[in-house]
Design goal:
Layout: E1 9-19, E2 30-47, H1 54-61, E3 65-69, E4 72-74, H2 78-95, E5 111-117, H3 127-143, H4 149-164, H5 170-175, E6 181-184, E7 188-191, E8 198-204, H6 211-224, H7 226-249, H8 252-268, H9 274-285, E9 290-294, E10 301-306, E11 323-328
Parallel strand pairs: 3-5
Antiparallel strand pairs: 1-2, 2-5, 2-6, 3-4, 6-7, 8-10, 8-11, 9-10
């Protein structure tokens, strides 16, 4: 039995945390937005060679996956194939919990699945959350089950946990959102009406450290020097609330200042790097109203806020680095 007609697909976009990294883990609010120009698509293809035994079917599904970043194929290690297969199986169980056959991946003959992503791997742009949401949308279409964006976000967060351990819900809520959100653990996502348009330029330092590693480092620092960490968590939380007001009132200069201050706190928490700091300086030199690291840190992306479209490449030492430009429009209702 085939799971999905070849050609069925799901799609989601990347995300950027505007402000609130790491403090969000401690229960403070974060502000994030979808990067609609950077998309990820998961598409079902032709069946693989038929395997009849249910247990062997699961092993066969591990051979189903192909990943393309841009036009380039990317090898998938065995452990990543296992995670992808587990997430696919979990997606079925979440979407069809009362259907013994359709909720069991072993019921279906393995078929090719291609992932086409415009998101850099491991850079903090929400790739695993986008993959999880795209997978659920494709499965929903295949099973003929309709789910709301809120349900997709909730389920995507569970799938995201397969890749990163327990996830906060921020990434999953952002990649399915229509615009800027405020996210706080226990409260979920709230849409922010943005009054004035702006541009975000993200520059990839091409350094990589897993998010879970950076979260663990901050947790260890918190045990050693709780007063220092709590101070910066509280400050970042306060800056996030100020940033929400800045967005609602169209105060781009003030928003940029809050981003700059947030980066200082992230430096104090030990999650920035020399390359990130250099990139942040370069973005400010290029005209950014504010700039900071975005995501878990330890490398990855730096983000710059611009009132008008910046020139690319930027005229600094980071001019040749991978760039991602996003226009954030004003909300019509604001």
């Amino acid at each position: 039995m085939i799971l999905a007609v070849p050609g069925i697909y799901g799609q989601a976009c990347g995300k950027a945390i505007l402000i609130g990294e790491h403090a969000a883990v401690a229960g403070f609010a974060a502000i994030a937005l979808p990067l609609k120009a950077q998309k990820l698509t998961l598409q079902f293809g032709e069946p693989l060679e038929s395997i009849n035994d249910g247990h062997e079917n699961i092993e066969g599904w591990k051979q189903a996956w192909s990943l393309f970043i841009g036009d380039a194929g990317v090898p998938l290690p065995s452990e990543e194939r296992t995670r992808l297969t587990k997430s696919l199986e979990l997606g079925l169980k979440l979407l069809a919990p009362n259907d013994v056959v359709r909720s069991n991946l072993a019921s279906f003959d393995p078929q090719k699945i291609e992932i086409h992503s415009q998101l850099p791997l491991g850079a903090g742009m929400g790739g695993s959350a986008a993959l999880s949401a795209a997978m659920l949308r494709a499965l929903s279409q295949a099973l003929g089950i309709e789910k709301t964006s809120l349900e997709i976000a909730s389920f995507a967060n569970e799938l995201d946990g397969v890749f990163h351990g327990r996830a906060s819900g921020l990434d999953a809520a952002t990649v399915v959102s229509d615009g800027i959100i405020r996210f706080k653990r226990g409260e979920g996502a709230q849409r922010i009406a943005n009054k004035k348009p702006f541009w975000l330029l993200l520059v990839d330092t091409q350094e990589r450290t897993p998010t879970r590693t950076m979260v663990q480092r901050v947790a260890e620092l918190r045990e050693k020097d709780s007063q220092r960490v709590e101070h910066h968590f509280s400050l970042i939380g306060l800056l996030s609330e100020r940033a929400r007001q800045n967005l609602q009132l169209g105060q781009l200069s003030e928003l940029g200042e809050n981003l700059n201050t947030a980066h200082e706190s992230l430096q104090a928490l030990g999650v920035s790097t020399n390359k990130l700091d250099s990139c942040v300086v370069g973005l400010r030199q290029a005209g950014a109203l504010g700039a900071k690291l975005t995501g878990g840190g330890g490398g990855g992306l730096a983000l710059g806020l611009f009132a008008s479209q910046p020139k690319i490449p930027i005229s600094t030492e980071w001019g040749d680095a991978p760039h991602y430009l996003t226009f954030v429009p004003a909300d019509e209702s604001s």
